[in-house]
Amino acid sequence: MFDKLRFRIALQFTIVIFILLLIYGAIFIPIDYRDYKNELEENLTNDASRVLSLMDLKPEDAIRKLTERDDFRVRIFNADDIVVYSGQLFTENDNVLRHDPFKINYHNDRFFVMTFPIELHGIPSGSLQIGEVYHVFIEDLREKMIILFLESLLVALLTYFIGMFFAKRALAPAESMYKRLDQFSQDASHELKTPLANASSSLDLALIGEKPRKYVEEAKINIIRAAEIVDDLLELAKMTKFTLQKEEINLSKLIREVIKEFNAQARFMKVRFITQIADDISVEADPGYILLLISNLINNSLKFSESGGEVQIILDEHSIQIRDKGIGIDSNMIERLFDPFFQAESSHSTKGSGLGLSIVKKIVDAHEWMIDVQSIKGIGTSFSITFK
Fold first, then answer.
1. Structure-model confidence comparison of residues 91 and 142, the more confident one
2. To the nearest 10°, the Cα dihedral for 244, 248, 249, 252?
3. For residue 260, what is the domain's CATH number?
4. Most Cβ neighbours (<10 Å): which of 21, 36, 178, 256?
5. Does the model's pTM come out above 0.85?
6. Residue 134: DSSP 8-state
7. Which DSSP string corresponds to 290-314?
8. Phi and psi at residue 369, to the nearest 5°
9. Residue 352 DSSP symbol
């Protein structure tokens, strides 16, 4: 899918560049021709002024003073419009005086000719015609359009390969996200089907069994688990840094309150809390999400602690650390620890939606904090969150 998308983006961008280059040529080639013609007329006017300056009393005075180049391209008429001098350029042209600019051919070249009045001492004394090689626009246009087309094609091909490169880079995060989303959807479907299938089986047994209450209770437990998964999925979906409602919170007080809520569970599991909580540590954060973050981490540590174990909770002005002496995690699985529904082999038998640590990671990312995990199989796991 993403290969086709990259191809379409690069191709569309290439077509746009190619069309823009052609439009550029269609606009600026005529402008170049106009500028060329203006420059040609200006050069002929300057050359005519120079030739006119050679005349004293009559037009013929300039003939012996002409340069070799002017001698070839100049024609002079007297006051009666009779040719008194004609350069080689005009040998095949009629000797009729024309005042408007015109074009003539000489061998394989085309010349542009302009006519200028001769005035000696303020008296009209004749006309001067002077020509210059003139590039035929239609022939030049054909050649320039071919060159423009080839240049545009070359630039377009280069643009295509560059576009493919940048499209691949730009779409890489989206492709990665799509793969994660696809895996997430499959995992979510599986995780939701399991409790619902168990609930359905329990209800079927309740309908035919002698002790329906037992099966109804099992079905209820599975339905509650499915509801918890849905709640966690919604929490994951809606949480971004833009949805945070930050305020100044006393993190020391909040952590102590969370620990109180888990005291009963810890006593039941015969796990001790060891705390080193600095007083009056404040952070700018969303209190609801921070409560959820601390609760999930403490609950996770308790869940994987063995009877008689301990959970350490350390808070200072820079970070919070939650350590357990539980079953630990293989080092090769740590990088997947925050993936939705991921559970290490050692945790498959534990209860939970499999989304707790994913929610923790998303809360940390939304606050632009950092989280680090250290774990040794059979020794324990440590979560460290650094505030920014």
1. 91
2. 130
3. 3.30.565.10
4. 21
5. no
6. -
7. HHHHHHHHHHHHHHTPPTT-EEEEE
8. -100, -170
9. S
